[in-house]
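Notes from the 1:1 (GR / supervisor)

We went over the backlog. Supervisor wanted to see one worked example end to end before approving the batch request, so GR pasted a single chain during the call. The sequence is below; no edits were made to it. Supervisor asked that the structure be written out right there so they could see what the output format looks like.
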Amino acid sequence: MDKVQRLAIGSIFVGTAVFVLKYAAYYITGSIALFSDALESIINMVTAVAAFLAVRVSAAPADANHPYGHHKVEYFSAVLEGVLIIVAALAILREAYLGLMTPKIVDAPMEGLALNAIAGVINAAWSWTLIRRGRRLRSPALVADGRHLLTDVVTSAGVLVGLLLVPVTGWHWLDPALAAVVAVNILWSGWGLMKESIGGLMDEALPEATLARVREIIAKNAEGAIEAHDLRTRHAGRMTFIDFHLVVPGAMSVTEAHEICDRLERALKADVEDALITIHVEPDDKAKHAGIVVL
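Structure output shown during the call:
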């Protein structure tokens, strides 16, 4: 089992522990805002399981039916997480509406808030771990899970501050109002996750800064060639796909052209982790006099 899968399993255990704490906080207080927090934790557990299954499938080697591997499955996990976040937000909005119609006094707030605060600290530490390690391991599923947890941390902090104000101000409507704010915030989070994942499924090119670096590496390491053109890039989970046409002198031997390609692949893989590179070699009469000029 690799590092990504171990982190995904860790998310399941952390999500379960946080849900128990948040549901206990809701059970003690009867707060709709804390109920919204607990409901989001259920979504966290479900998406943690989905993320684990996604990274497990993505780690499977390429086969006859999937010659480019299974890396894109992680994007489906992130899309699922976005959909579930939206469903949870709609459920919270319903509870918030009912609470606004009939506000009630929140019981024993300090005990419940203490439990919720502990859950928030656990979530904050784990979300930071997932985002940092997920980016290092190039796992969209882990980064999405971490970003979702980070949103949960922010909303939990807002709920805690708001509920502390309820006994001071006597505004009992503040509890369902906070739940509505939580719902709107996680709706925005869900949309962001889905938008980013759909971009991956649609084979978006690498960011412009990374593309510029790829062009620079090709220009500096293609000595002996004439030019490179038709550069195309895309992400698929942890993999980065790079392909381009390399124009060489027509009299160059296959062995010499292959040596240039090997040199380019080594340089690109040293800079772009988990890169899969395809180079199409062409004779000089195919030069377009555009694209990447060999230095």
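Supervisor's comment: The mean pLDDT is 80.
Batch request approved.
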